[in-house]
Design brief:
The complex is a heterodimer.
Chain A: H1 3-20, H2 24-47, E1 53-59, E2 63-64, E3 68-78, E4 84-92, E5 97-100, E6 104-106, E7 111-120, E8 124-128, E9 132-136, E10 143-147, E11 152-156, H3 170-173, E12 189-194, H4 206-211, E13 218-222, E14 229-235, E15 243-244, E16 247-248, H5 249-266, E17 270-276, E18 280-287, H6 290-302, H7 312-321, H8 324-327, E19 330-335, H9 343-349, E20 355-361, H10 367-379, E21 383-387, H11 392-409
Parallel strand pairs in A: 2-11, 14-17, 14-19, 19-20, 20-21
Antiparallel strand pairs in A: 1-3, 3-7, 4-5, 4-6, 4-9, 8-11, 9-10, 12-13, 15-16, 17-18
Chain B: H1 7-15, H2 17-23, H3 26-34, H4 39-56, H5 59-62, H6 65-90, H7 94-117, H8 123-150, H9 156-161, H10 165-169, H11 182-212, H12 219-223, H13 225-250, H14 260-278
Helix pairs in contact in B: 1-11, 2-8, 2-11, 4-6, 4-7, 6-7, 7-8, 8-11, 11-13, 13-14
The chains are: A alpha/beta, B mainly alpha.
Chain lengths: 410, 279
Amino acid sequence: MKKHIRLLIGFFGLMTICSLALLPNATLAMLSVMLALCINLVLFKYLKPSNNFEVTRVFDKYQVMPPADINASLEMKYNGRFPANASVEFDCQSLGLNINTGTVVFQPGQKYDISKTFVADRRGIHKISSTKIVVKDWLLLSGITITSNDEAEILVLPHIYPFETSPQTSAAGLLGVSSSIKQGRSSEVWGIRDYQPGDDFKIISWKAMAKSPDHKPKSKITAGEEGQAITIVVDIGKDSELPNGDQISLDISADLAASLSYNFIKRGTRTGLLLFDTRTRTVLKPARGDTHVDSLLRNLAKVQPSRDKFLITSFTNSYLELSASEFGNSFILILTRTDDRLIESYLSKLKSSRDLIIILIYNEDNYERAQQIQKTVEENGIQMILTNHSSVMDTMKKMEEWSYATVKRT
Amino acid sequence: MLPLRELRTYISALSIAPIAVMIVNPVVLNAFVSYLSSIAFFSAFGLIAIYLFLKQIGFIKTLGPNQQVFFESLLLVLPIIIPMFTVLTTSNPSDFIAAFLAYLVIGTVVSLSRVVVGAGVGAFGKVLYFFFAYMMALMIYAGCVAGSITGETFSLLLAFDQIAGIATYLGYEGHPIELPLIEYVKLGMAFAIPGITFSALAAQVRLSEVRDNPGAESKMVSSLRSSVALLTLGSAILLLPVYIISIALVNFAPYLVTIIPPVLVMGFILLLLYFVERD
C-alpha cells in the first residue's frame, strides 16, 4: 500500500475515534491535517510538476584506456510555475558510480548543475543506467518517477603496456616489413628469410636455398610484403574468471593480448586474435592499421569469461588446422586453465615448425600446478612464461625479446 | 547559548496552549499539591522516572528481548500494582487514584514534549501525541474539577465520563461536566488547529527528508515553508463547510455533530483524490 494512502487511513481511523468519543476539537485537528494532506495530493496530481523538468546528462569520454578519469555532468532545469521537489539519480554499478542528488526543492526557472569525476579502471563495457527523476509532492509523501531514455555505455579498453624499444628504432622495425603503404609486392628485395608455408612460389629464392648450409627453402623479403603475422590466442574459458590480485585472470590475459597486438601492429607486424574456450569464439585475422587495432581492443574490452572450460584437445585440433597463409607462423597462446591433466601432453603436441610461446596466467592457488606444467612443456621444447597480476611488465619484456628473436630466426 | 529552533517548533509550542490551560490552572495545581504527600503518587513518579532515565542512557537496549519486556513491564506496571494492594486491604482507592493521576500527568507531559520537540515524529505522530495530550489533559482537568466539587480531590469516574462518548452509544450513562475554562480552550483551539496542522505537515517533510538522507540538514522544511503554510491555509478554508454543516446539524442531532460533518467533507475530498489518482 502506498505511503500516503496508509497515512490517510491512519488519520481517518484516529478521526473516527475522536468523533465517536465526542471530542470536537481533536476531531477538527485530525480533519484539518487530513484535508491538508489531500489538498497536497490532489494539487500534485493536477498540476503535474513532473512534466516541467529538463535533464541533460553528459560524459566527457565514452571510450577510455584504464585508469582514466571520466567526468559526468548533469544539468537540470525546472520550468514549472510552483516549487517542486525532485531527486535525480543514475549509476554505473560496475564502476562504482552512483549519482543521486537527493531530494532538492526546485524554484521555478531554477537550474541545478552537478558534476562528478570517477575513475574507469575496470576493463569491459560498463552500462550507465538511465537517468531517473523522482518528482515528489510538497510533503514528500508520493512521487512520480520519470525514466529518461539515455542509457549509455562506457567502453574501458584493456590496459596497454608499451615495449621498451620505440617503434622507430631499427631493431623494432625489423619485426614487420611495412615500408610500403601500397598493398602488393615490388621487385625490390630487402632480404631473405626462411620459407613459410603459404609463401607465394614466386618469392622463393632458389639461389639462397642452394647457398644455405641446411638447404632449406628461403623466401625473399620484398618491399610492400605484408610481412610476418602473429596470432594471439586467448583462453576465455571458465578458469579465466579466477581472481588474480584485484582483477580476474581474463583481465590480465586481455591486457597482455591488447599490449602485444598494439605493439606488434605499431611495428608493422600483422597481428590476429582468436578467443577460444571449447571452440573458436572470435576470429580476427592478422592485419595492420588503426582500424584493426581498434577492433582488437574493442573485442578484448568486451570479452567475458565463458561458462565452458577451455578444452586443450579441441584447441590442439583447431591450432593444427590454422592456415599459415592466414594466421602466420607465430602464435602466442595465453592460457588460464591449469586443472586439466591433459594440458601437458597436448601442449607438447603443438610443437611444430611454428613459433609458439605460451603465457600461463596463474594465481596463488594454482602456482604449483602452473610450475609443473611449465616444466613439462619446456622439456618438450615449447617456451612458456608464467605470469600473474604482479608480473605483467616482466612478461611484456620477455615477449618483446621473443618477438625480436622470432624475427631473427626468420 | 542554545541555538534558535525552527518556526515549526515555536508554532507547535503555541499550539499546545489550550492543553496547557487545562493542566496549569489553580484547580489542577491544588489537586497535585494535595497528592504530594501520597507515597503511591511519588513511587509512580519515581519508578517512571527511573524507567525514562534507564531508557535515555540506553541500558534497556542492552538487555535481551525477553528481559527487556519483563523489565519495562515491571517498571511501568509496578506503580499501579502497588496501590492495588491498598485497595484490596483497606478498600480505600486514594492511593490508586493518586498513582493513576501520576500516570496521566506524566503521559500528558511526555506527549506534549513529543508534540513540540519530538525528533523523528511525522504528521501522524504529531497529531497522535496531540490527541493523547488533549485527552489526558481533559481527564486531569475534568477529574480535578469534579473532585473539587465532590470533595475527593480527583474524581476518576467523572474524568472517564469526559471522554466516554463511545460508551454512551452503547448505553453507558456518562455525566460529563461543564468545565469552567472550556471557553478559553475552545478559543485556543481555533488557533491551535491550524498550528498543529502546520506543525504536523512540517514534521512530515522533515521525517521524509531524514528518511531519504539521514545526515541531511533541515533544508527542505525551510524551503517548503511557504508550501506548507499554503496547505494549512487550504485546510483551514475547507474546515468552513464542516462548520456550516455542524451549525445546521446541531439543533436536531447534536450527538452526530462530531461525526457527520467531518465524514461528509472528508468523504468528498477522498472521492476527489480517488478520481485524480485514477487518471
